[in-house]
């Protein structure tokens, strides 16, 4: 266990880590910035429930009152859900100032990985990771998630990179930084709302036991980076690629016209895509998070068997 003076680990999570029991980290940006209240709180609590049903302890992560929190209470999740976008979206660059100010922050993939690692948690379930944005060859808009995956030894289970991104460049960036991209039961990178992207992953793995074995080998070798597991959205919730891609193109054009950039880009695009698709994209988003939570919990259980 880290003794970091800014870190608070809930008693349940601390005990599970100390006893070598399976724990799965969860981010909080999806609560404050990912969907509206009360769906955000309902989804967060349901994800925790799914992790418990599959044999692991959930550890939702956030920054509250300047404290790095690993394991939130239901009241704390409710607080984040109600405050919504008034909570700072916190990446690596924000941690020091938010802690020094005693402020709140919703953790992204990056900061959830950092705090999970501090707390001794090795597996993290999320929706989709950030990546290289479209047009990044001129804007240099590349998510900090990719750098974190290259340097922090946490397995991240997601539904691929968000399809608002340049998926080809995102894979190239991960390859350059030595991050293995694994498809769970697929040879093709899932594209968040849809099961296929046209881009190949590095390896296909078909069981939680093999995922755990691969990650354990990485840890044993002292490889410093993480491992990205891409888990396709269940078939029944997958969206028609033509419909979702049209919505994404419209949203990207609107963002460009309005001068939206940086960390505001993803929340803007997801909100517009939800509106354009009549809410279908939000339903898909929720279901893929549930699916990732199941796989992460089962993999965490396997990781604790040795």
List the helices and strands and how they pair.
Layout (H helix, E strand, L loop, with lengths): L6 E3 L1 H8 L4 E4 L2 H4 L6 H15 L3 E8 L2 E4 L3 H10 L4 E3 L4 H7 L3 E3 L1 H11 L3 E3 L10 H4 L4 H8 L3 E4 L8 H10 L4 E4 L18 E3 L2 H13 L6 E4 L10 H18 L6 H12 L3 H24 L3
Parallel strand pairs: 1-4, 2-3, 2-7, 5-6, 7-8, 8-11, 9-10, 9-11
Antiparallel strand pairs: 3-4, 3-6
Helix pairs in contact: 3-4, 3-13, 6-8, 10-13, 11-12
Molecular structure report:
This protein is of the alpha/beta class. The protein is 47% helix and 14% strand. The protein has helices at 11-18, 29-32, 39-53, 74-83, 95-101, 109-119, 136-139, 144-151, 167-176, 208-220, 241-258, 265-276, 280-303; strands at residues 7-9, 23-26, 57-64, 67-70, 88-90, 105-107, 123-125, 155-158, 181-184, 203-205, 227-230. Strands 1, 2, 3, 4, 5, 6, 7, 8, 9, 10 and 11 form an eleven-stranded mixed β-sheet that branches. A hairpin with a 2-residue loop joins β3 and β4.
Structural class: alpha/beta
What separation lies between the terminal Cα atoms? 19 Å
- Residue runs with pLDDT of under 50 for 5 or more positions: none
| Percent in strands | 5-15%
Q: Shape, please?
A: globular
Helix content: 40-55%
Radius of gyration: 18 Å
> Largest sheet, if any?
11 strands, mixed
Please give the count of helices: 13
Task: Provide a concise account of the structure shown.
The protein has helices at 11-18, 29-32, 39-53, 74-83, 95-101, 109-119, 136-139, 144-151, 167-176, 208-220, 241-258, 265-276, 280-303; strands at residues 7-9, 23-26, 57-64, 67-70, 88-90, 105-107, 123-125, 155-158, 181-184, 203-205, 227-230. The chain is an alpha/beta fold and 306 residues long. It starts with 6 loop residues before the first strand and ends with a helix.
